[in-house]
Amino acid sequence: MQRIFFNEVVTRDGFQNEPDFVPTDTKVELIDALSQCGYAKIEVTSFTSAKAIPMLRDAEVVMGRIRRAPGVEYTVLVPNVRGAERALESRADEFNLVMSTSETHNLSNLRMPRERSFAALKDVVALVGGRVPINVSLSACFGCPMEGDVPQAQVLAWADRFADLGVRGLTICDTTGMAHPDQVSRLCEALRARFPQLQLTLHFHNTRGMGLANVMAAVQQGIDRFDGSLGGLGGCPYAPGASGNICTEDAIHMLHAVGHDTGIDLGRLLTVARWLPKVVGHEVPGQVAKAGRTQDLHPEPAYVAELRSQFA
């Protein structure tokens, strides 16, 4: 079976919309716990302005205090040159740059047209100059709730432009939860044929309950990298009706059930996941942390033993 690599995004993508500030000490403790679970990458934080995302105003402090585990890449979201300068000082292992393939979504989310976003991110690539690997997350690749379908050719065209800049990887994002498995299969097939040299990551949301089905469709096309958010936290604030990202532990449980190796210690991860509601102060969408793994069996009721003897 295929080896799958998972990236955890809860402390950036998951936390950014939470109404109550998660203390810095708690963020550090959570990241340190996640670092022991077997992830390929952990997206720790974002070097955006504190005014834009108050939750992540402690980016430098968090990056400076986490205990980095061997084999885990600690990645950060970088919105512009100023953010890149701050991120370089933090010794992040990877920079994640973001723009949308939908013009309307990009205007809603980033307050600028796509061409201006591309120019700003091109400046970041130039500033970094190969010192840190760069990944580009392309948002709304499977549809925009304001424009409708985003043509596959449009997604590939933006992917081409970033590939030409020499980035290491692309994350193809279902930011608004509009993807379905057939669409995912077609786009993944095209991406793997066109960009065999790049790390290709898929980022799904579960807005319409198809997140895990979309993961399986991508795996069947040979995609081996995925983003997930502990407990299913997150969602795009500029996408009407959007709910959380796919739940990491639910996705890992599914992939293990069908025989894939993720490198994740699911038992350890579930322990962390069961702590998450206390961290954010409310229940979270994840299911496996509540129900347990399918192999976690329960003792039979006492009356069943009586029935066994009765019908022997």
Present the secondary structure layout.
Blueprint: E1 5-8, H1 10-14, H2 24-34, E2 41-46, H3 59-65, E3 73-77, H4 81-90, E4 94-100, H5 103-110, H6 114-128, E5 134-139, H7 152-164, E6 169-173, H8 181-194, E7 199-203, H9 211-220, E8 225-228, H10 248-257, H11 266-280, H12 288-291, H13 302-310
Parallel strand pairs: 1-2, 1-8, 2-3, 3-4, 4-5, 5-6, 6-7
Q: Can you count the beta strands?
A: 8
Q: Numbering strands along the chain, what is their spatial order in the largest sheet?
A: 7-6-5-4-3-2-1-8
What characterizes the major β-sheet?
Answer: 8 strands, parallel
> How many separate helices?
13
CATH H-level homologous superfamily name:
Aldolase class I
Task: Count the domains.
Answer: 1
Note the gap between the termini: 43 Å
CATH top level assignment: Alpha Beta
How much is the radius of gyration in Å?
Answer: 20 Å
Q: Give the integer mean of the pLDDT values.
A: 95
Low-confidence stretches: none
Structure description:
With 312 residues, the protein is an alpha/beta fold. The chain has one domain: Aldolase class I (TIM Barrel, Alpha-Beta Barrel). The protein is built from 13 helices and eight strands. Strand 3, helix 4 (81-90) and strand 4 (94-100) form a beta-alpha-beta unit. The termini are far apart. The mean pLDDT is 95.
